[in-house]
Amino acid sequence: MTMIQTFPLANLRDLGGIPVRGGRVRPGLVFRSDDVALVDEPGALALVQSGVSLVIDLRSPGEATRTGRGVLSGHPVDYLHLPLTADVSDPTALVQLFSGSDHPERTMGAWYAQLLEERSAEIVRGLRAIADNPGGSLFHCAAGKDRTGIFAAALLTVLGADEPSIVADYARTAAVIEAIMARFAGHQAPGAAEEWKELPAALMGASPATMASMLETTRTAHGSVAALLAAGGCDAALAARLRDRLVEPA
After folding, report:
1. 115-133, pLDDT tens digit by residue?
2. How many domains does the chain divide into?
């Protein structure tokens, strides 16, 4: 059996403190991250000690099969796999997405909006799991940027965050892109990390314009992110439970 090399997390952050309607997100209850299947034992222990008791894995089935749950599987943490993509292992497919695009951030945002629409039921299932979880919840993909950014935008929308706050949270990943790429280089096949570096800058970055484009595209098609999620099953009762659990007075 091939041993998977583990690393400290590069893009872990608490959503606590983000302003929402009537207050702010309560610290210590909901986290976003890059791939926790590759976290080292000290990192896993730190997550558990911080109160994380649920991991929501947004990676594709192929990614989840290849690296499994990692060392966190040895800790008392529940696991929910909610793939937001069928497969993202081939960089060439993503290159084709941007081929000929004069506005790559808009193209990226439109792709996000498509995933949000296609996977709204899965996202709502994740929101329900967070509402039901008595401890801290962590959601992640590979880099903690694209699929994780979509899920974070959905959650923050339900909690009552405004668009500038959602965009600002997404853009924070830009500061750790190099650390994320270094982590990729340590666990992918030889040369794979170099292939990822050749992708368009919009894909490898975390431009505010990308998330703003997703929100605008969704608003045009569905009225709002909230309306799309409501159609996917996020009713008023679920929204209220999430706010009761995750929002504190400012």
Report:
1. 999 999 999 999 999 999 9
2. 1
